[in-house]
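Kindly inspect what follows.
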Amino acid sequence: MQKPRIPHRFTGRLLSALLILISALGLAGGEIAPVEAQVAASIQPPTATSGTLGTGTTWETPWYVIDSGQDGPTVLITGGVHGNEPAGFRAAEQIRHWPIRRGKLVVLPQINRLGLAANIRWTPDHRNDRQRRDLNRSFPTSERDEALTEHTRAIWDFITDHQPDWVFDLHEGFDFHRLNADSVGSSVIAFPGQRDFAKRIQQAVNADVDPQRHFDVLAKSGPVVGSLARACHEQLGAVSFIFETTFKDQPLSRRTRQHRRMVSTALLSIDVIAEDCVDHLAPQPSRGITNVALFDDSGANEAKVLKVLEGRPELRVRQVGRHDIRPEVLDQFDVLVFPGGSGSKQGKAIGPDGRDHVRQFIRDGGGVVGICAGAYLCSSHYSWSLNLMNAAVFNQTVEIPGKGRKSMWYRGPATDVDVELTDQGSQVLGVSGTQSIQYQNGPILSPGDNDALPEYEPWAYFRSENGIYEPQKNTMIGAPAIVFARYGHGRMLAISPHFESTPGQSGVIPRAIAHVRGE
């Protein structure tokens, strides 16, 4: 039986200390004295409410309000104003679950919901209207009292109802401003009077950034006219900022983390949160929902897996990178997924410490699913392997006449091969018999030579093969296509072919996730 996991809890140190003190006083005296009782009664968990603007319209916009019940500022967090800037949306969605100690947090994580779905900057409803298509030019200005569209008017009415004191609008640029002045990517945009606060944010985010890609403070004239941030400053007197990451050459997990770093620094500075929340990606577990961490850093081609998993009500998916492969982050998740791409690049990206942390995660009861490159990673064959099972990989380097030395892992371009499920594989994964599944150079596994590691159990076999060199012939047919292993209190599934890329077969991946979680 799989050991239950206890996700990492993010609680304010002050709240914890007070509750411990109150408990101690009560135990010592037999009952809680009136003063302590009053303190205990005054400390209540934040209340969360949610709703939708424009219900029934094409531009329905979800909102969330977290109220601490304690006096303090009202902070507005917005993301996804531009649909091709997903990091702000992802970060805002994570931030809305942060524990606040005072004030109120108002979050609009995906203002341009349809634009995000289509990965376009504009609102699809107005994409051919140059005046109205950009939401961040549609809010009130010093010369225009009203927002330009029904959508932005509803958003503006909602914002004015809450009268925010602070506004942090999360965006992305196409390039690093430090290297390309035509882009505002990797910057903190502020009004001149807020330069010192902006520099504090800049210093915090730059601590983990390559110096050539450092964030800059842009505080000459403030956010652009017509933007949400500028409207909040001019019309409502809010202290407003735009935080910009850069989507060029950076995984989404890294950009999302940079947004969390900037917002966490800001909220700590104004005493809205009690401790740094940069590592808080997923909310408290809830019944029937699995928290899934999907690796998206170097060597990961996660897009198709993400498409399969997102939107499923039983899954809560967060993309994670090398900086997130640490206990304080992994403890928030039930399952870690390594997708296709390059196993060596993924393994080297997380490094020796990260590989140790993954092993501890599964040893303590977590689940791991490795797909193609991720299956290579789960083996014990390479120096960068996770060593989750005693498994070698067919990967000799052979001299091929007229072609030179060639590595046998490469078997040619993607093609379909026959895969036959075992009875156990069929029962768990919902696929029976022999199926034609896309294959793109996934590992050909065999028993390894490290008896200290768990042995794997084949759940599917290859019944046809792909290959381009003579030494590859007859090495694939009969080899395992899917294997299962137990590691400590946890479970692992390594899947060599691509069910997520095969029409009608993508359901195998969420079933695999459910199984390694222990459901």
In short: Confidence is low (pLDDT under 50) at residues 6-42. The first strand starts at residue 47 and ends at 53.
